[in-house]
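Good day; I would like, with your permission, to put a structural problem before you. What I wish to show you is a protein chain and, alongside it, a tokenised description of its three-dimensional fold. I would ask you to consider whether the tokens describe a fold that such a sequence might reasonably adopt. You will find the record immediately after this paragraph:
***
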Amino acid sequence: MFRCRAGLARALRPPPRGRAHAGTLLQRWNVPPDLQLSRQVASTGVPGQKGSNSVFVLIMGLSTLGAGAYAYKTIQESKERYASRLAMTARQSQGQESSASGAAPQGTAAPVTPIKVPSHVPFLLIGGGTAAFAAARSIRARDPGARVLIVSEDPALPYMRPPLSKELWFSDDPNVTETLRFKQWNGKERSIYFQPPSFYVPVEDLPCVENGGVAVLPGKKVVHMDVRGNTVKLNDGTQISYDKCLIATGGSPRNLPAIERAGKEVQKRLTLFRKIEDFQRLEKISREVKSITIIGGGFLGSELACALGRRARTRGLEVIQLFPENGNMGKVLPEYLSNWTTEKVRREGVNVLPNAVVKSVSVCGNRLLIQLKDGRKVETDHIVAAVGLEPNVELAKSAGLEVDSDFGGFRVNAELQARSNIWVAGDAACFYDIKLGRRRVEHHDHAVVSGRLAGENMTGAAKPYWHQSMFWSDLGPNVGYEAIGLVDSSLPTVGVFAKATAKDTPKCATELSGTGIRSESETEAEASEVQISQSSSPMPQVPKQGEDYGKGVIFYLRDKVVVGIVLWNIFNRMPIARKIIKDGEEHEDLNEVAKLFNIHED
């Protein structure tokens, strides 16, 4: 203590006066001679008196130099951060949506240098698909300063999947696999990406960027989840803690056991269609081979069959579609409409083989040989398996989350919660529908709406999931349908049809909605009131085989109550269908119910 006081006294003692001391001090600090100001210049007082301020001027000068050095260092660091942000954006987009050409390239975000990942984020979204993106926008809408990190196994920025099996195949652009831009049925052009790279914040800047933002960490997979510690571990060992977490891991395409047993040579000629790279690879293959076989007669298989069938006519490509059902969409549509759809696909140039069950697949010479259980054989060059989706629930084990044994996916409550601070949305969520029971839905609209609701609830909304999601499928620009509820061909159905007009096509539907993704304009809206007049007309009859089903409504019944509706070439009427299902009432005359959809209007 005494030493400190003595040192302080010496520090406060007035310095010796005079020119000699000032010169010695300047020399001791190694100040260049040309900067050692003369006493006359540095002082406004009488030499040797108290007006001397050489030391003061010296200190001020050195302070100025220090401030300049600090400013230079700060500017350099800012430039480095700015350059780093530009480099990160460039890596994420790889030139996506250049302003000169209006093209949106692959949008892949493969980093060339390690990214500094935040150790903690308030909102962590696992999965980079539609549900995660919808949740991120919802979180930011309710909390404009929120910091959201999306960890995506996909190398690309969030994008919409429907065009991969629909509009992109009908593009006349030879570079469509690079631009990933397409003309909608209404002629307007857009990219498959939800937002350009400039929308997102670089991952390393997320903790400090003003007003928060959304960052995407691409090409990384969450492999372990500690629910009690609120942390996750990535496949590279990185650990991230969170306040609230959304699991939107989606699903992976299923394969056939017969193909899995076939060996590597067969696997090399197989496409499990799901992502951008699958579209790019299959598009390239379709230009190089003579024959492609699609296994599966559901939504994806039928859409790809029609898309590739177009090339069958223009390029001589053989397109074969085989499935175990009696007709296309046989698990969804009533038999008569499934048969009509099958003929429609055949008219598109596809060789459709119904009632076909694959027994084995092998390599025979330069081709693949598909052996069917009924003895038929199919030779082809490439196989596309479109046989369903398996929800990605690997995190359930480490996180201790429940997986539904019947439908698959993480079991969640009405607010899409699996735990107090963990939500699930999209394909991986198994939720309870108050009207139709527990369900798991694998469609774009469900991903949008469930992701949006999860984001709202992550910011305190506490809203239940009441929405009846819709889905749609287009067999080209002239035939399409929208559906809602339980649409299962094993249920009793009643169809009401009318003659179609030029307005009753997917192309016209997108012209009215202004978007090629119809559910982007779809909300949770439902008709406020449904007035159904009483009538004594008989129940509608099943249409006769061979009729041209221009447009119509198909009602799916359970215990005489409508639980599902298909709108065949009828668009923008989904709020009415949603209201009918929500009301859950018995209807004596479904002809009168069908009139609500204006099917008899010209």
The longest helix spans residues 54-93.
